[in-house]
Design a protein that fits this description.
Structural class of chain B: alpha/beta
CATH superfamily of chain B: P-loop containing nucleotide triphosphate hydrolases
Largest interface: A-B, 20 and 21 residues
Radius of gyration of chain B: 16 Å
Oligomer: heterodimer
Shape of chain A: globular
CATH class of chain A: Alpha Beta
Structural class of chain A: alpha/beta
Strand content of chain B: 15-25%
CATH topology of chain B: Rossmann fold
Number of strands of chain B: 7
Number of domains of chain A: 1
Number of strands of chain A: 6
CATH architecture of chain B: 3-Layer(aba) Sandwich
Shape of chain B: globular
CATH architecture of chain A: 3-Layer(aba) Sandwich
CATH topology of chain A: Rossmann fold
Number of domains of chain B: 1
Strand order of the largest sheet of chain B: 3-2-4-5-1-6-7
CATH superfamily of chain A: P-loop containing nucleotide triphosphate hydrolases
Helix content of chain B: 40-55%
Order of helices and strands of chain A: EHEEHHEHEE
Number of helices of chain A: 4
Helix content of chain A: 25-40%
CATH class of chain B: Alpha Beta
């Protein structure tokens, strides 16, 4: 698994499509996932993390990737942790949850990239 | 040489940009201010930047251009600092409220494109506001989208792209000389 992060509207998905190949299946919602033998890019992981079934979904994706050596998973997550503390408790909890999950993704990832306005910086 | 500088508030973007231009071999230095003074706080910021330039070892010509940057004309003997893209994008967005953000992004990059090749040296300062929580206001979301598109476009068309991290420049494109 590779993890790609960076701020909103920094060209993360465009970079990933260029870097990994545009023939990949891009999943923005859990329902868009279908079994495939190609590369899978999960875009907007931060939105999926709002759902109660998020952990089960990411676990399923992780198992799919490890079931065959040619399966490859890319997770793209927008960094939403760099602003001021949100007023609403729900938003604070989401932000914390996103940060903690990104830490876990980065720990498990083979490669990690931070995209800065279209330019990649490899962190791992 | 086109240099793009981006970073957070008070990260030393303008100071670093001025340092680059003071080292320029171009004869004339120009400072293009895009901010409009609307309150005391803005006035203070403008005064501080003005004082910095007055104390400068070289003379600067100041232009106040809140919108329509493409109307400025420069030559290869000019070194130009545009400070900053963020306020210019804000002003253009206010002026063209009815234009959808995607179309506006294309129009604004076309205008910037006209300016880009004129000066001998050009430094453009911008802000990074992309790592906060998504806003519930459409206008704020549109603005972050628009600024993101402009920043990406400028990084692509620059010779050097620099992220300022609390006074420390990080070169994503090009190398520090």
């Amino acid at each position: 698994m590779d993890f790609v992060t960076g701020g909103a509207h920094n060209g993360k998905l465009n970079w990933a499509l260029n870097h990994y190949g545009s023939k990949s299946l891009v999943v923005r919602e859990i329902s868009e996932w279908k079994h495939t033998e190609t590369l899978v890019i999960i875009d907007h992981a931060e939105q999926i993390l709002k759902l109660p079934e998020a952990d089960a979904f990411f676990h399923k994706m992780w198992e799919w990737e490890h079931s065959r050596p040619d399966h490859q998973l890319i997770i793209i997550g927008t960094d939403v942790t760099g602003g001021i503390v949100p007023v609403e408790k729900e938003h604070r909890e989401w932000r914390d949850n996103v940060g903690l999950h990104y830490q876990q993704f980065i720990k498990e990832a083979e490669s990690v990239y931070r995209i800065w306005y279209g330019i990649p910086q490899q962190l791992k | 040489m086109i240099t793009f500088i981006c970073g957070g508030v008070r990260s030393g973007k303008t100071r670093f940009a001025e340092r680059l231009l003071l080292a320029s071999s171009c004869k004339n230095l120009h400072y293009v201010a895009t901010g409009v003074v609307t309150d005391e706080e803005m006035k203070e910021r403008v005064t501080r930047h003005q004082q910095d330039r007055q104390r400068s070892e070289r003379a600067w010509t100041t232009w106040e251009q809140p919108t329509d940057l493409h109307e400025l004309a420069f030559s290869s003997s000019d070194a130009v600092l545009i400070d900053c893209l963020t306020t210019w994008v804000t002003n253009e967005m206010m002026k063209h409220e009815k234009i959808p953000p995607g179309k506006l992004a294309k129009g604004l990059s076309k205008r910037l494109g006209k300016l880009l090749q004129q000066p001998g040296d050009l430094v453009i300062v911008s802000n990074d506001v992309s790592r906060g929580m998504p806003s519930s206001f459409t206008m704020v979301r549109d603005y972050i989208y628009l600024l993101g598109q402009m920043n990406q476009w400028l990084v692509k068309h620059s010779d050097q792209a620099v992220e300022m991290v609390f006074g420390q420049p990080y070169f994503h494109k090009g190398v520090e000389r």
